[in-house]
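Q: What residues go here?
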């Protein structure tokens, strides 16, 4: 099964994508994680992306399309995958179509803007392995420390309040038109994001099973 998870930054699509990935045994492919990894390693892609990410802007389409092309060609994507954070613009969605990548369903995790801002301020990420946490919704076992590798948790630079409002603006302008794009193809499934991760997960799994 080939799935796309859509949603505003901080709506919890990454968390849901990871849970569904484990349950369905298909990889979750996060362009955000791939770009952050490239940044950390100082690759040309990373260097190209840095200024955009820090400003809360989208990385140019050709850069992310190249990333996705390469990633989807890997063996572990042969039996399906979950795209988390791609496509984020109409041209990216069109590129996916042109690559001949069939998409079964698009899960749109909906959270209203005022709640998004609150949620983003509580997000933390591991400075070493990139695992993500939340002060309210996905607490680490030990405060400020990564469960997976024991390194320090930090706030992502682009989760700072000034950047969050720009990311939301960009989301409404560039990404939200995808709801229509996939809605018209009959592929859009809408999940109302809940306060508790497990409640959102229950809705996500239900809607996927009902539409399998
Ligand atoms: P979130 O879902 O919280 O916004 P991500 O980790 O998905 O965060 O993405 C972080 C940043 O990486 C984005 O703000 C953007 O700059 C860049 N990025 C990730 N995916 C894409 C994409 N498909 N197109 C353009 N930029 C992207
Ligand atoms: Zn870690």
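A:
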């Amino acid at each position: 099964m080939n799935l796309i998870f859509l949603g505003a930054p901080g709506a919890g699509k990454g968390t849901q994508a990871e849970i569904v990935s484990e349950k369905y045994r298909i990889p979750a492919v996060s362009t955000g994680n791939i770009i952050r990894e490239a940044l950390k390693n100082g690759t040309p892609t990373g260097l190209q992306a840095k200024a955009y990410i820090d400003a809360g802007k989208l990385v140019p389409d050709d850069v992310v399309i190249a990333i996705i092309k390469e990633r989807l060609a890997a063996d572990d994507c042969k039996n399906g995958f979950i795209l988390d954070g791609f496509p984020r613009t109409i041209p990216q969605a069109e590129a996916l179509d042109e690559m001949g990548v069939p998409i079964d369903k698009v899960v749109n995790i909906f959270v209203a803007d005022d709640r998004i801002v609150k949620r983003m301020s509580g997000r933390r990420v591991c400075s070493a392995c990139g695992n993500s946490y939340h002060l309210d919704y996905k607490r680490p076992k030990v405060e400020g420390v990564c469960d997976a590798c024991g390194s320090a948790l930090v706030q992502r630079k682009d989760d700072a309040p000034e950047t969050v409002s720009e990311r939301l603006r960009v989301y409404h302008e560039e990404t939200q038109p995808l709801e229509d794009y996939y809605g018209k193809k009959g592929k859009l499934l809408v999940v109302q994001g809940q306060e508790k991760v497990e409640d959102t997960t229950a809705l996500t799994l239900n809607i996927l099973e009902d539409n399998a």
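A: Context that may help when evaluating the design: The chain has a mean pLDDT of 94. The longest helix spans residues 161-175.
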